[in-house]
Amino acid sequence: METSYEVHILTHGQWILDSVYDDKIQAKYQAQYLLNDEKKVDAVRVLKETPDPDGGDPVTTTVFQEKKAPAAGSAAAEKSAVAQKGKVATATIKDAQKGTGKPALKTYLIRAAIILVGGLAGLIGVSVLMYNM
């Protein structure tokens, strides 16, 4: 087993595993993307799982965690803006494209459903064409 980076999202007060990556930069980029683009996400974190050399449970450490910014115009937003001033993002799109991420089961199921629906639509289209010939 090798070191992996798990992206977790906080929604409705509960942490949920979103995806797993081999690359820390890619995992952090995904976490930041989810925080900025998903409305239901309140916070994100990236956990680093390192295998125990003695074969025990893996060692888990938090390498990144961030809460969603408060709504614009609020006093909390102004405080947050002052605190964030000068902070540089650590992951870029180009950096995130390195390595391979392993999407969570939910992502695989959605992709399988899309492929299945597309395949059925194709079969129906072919059968309609053959019937009309």
Account of the protein in words:
The chain is an alpha+beta fold and 133 residues long. The protein has helices at residues 24-37, 75-84, 93-96, 105-131; strands at 4-11, 14-21, 43-50, 59-67, 101-103. A five-stranded antiparallel sheet has the order 4-3-1-2-5. It starts with a strand and ends with a helix.
Contiguous low-pLDDT stretches (5 residues minimum) are 85-100
Shape: elongated
| Structural class category | alpha+beta
What gap, in angstroms, lies between the N and C termini? 57 Å
In short:
The chain has 133 residues and is α+β, with helices and mostly antiparallel strands. It has four helices and five strands, in the order ββαββααβα.
Characteristic key phrases:
133 residues; alpha+beta; 4 helices; elongated
Layout of SSEs?
Layout: E1 4-11, E2 14-21, H1 24-37, E3 43-50, E4 59-67, H2 75-84, H3 93-96, E5 101-103, H4 105-131
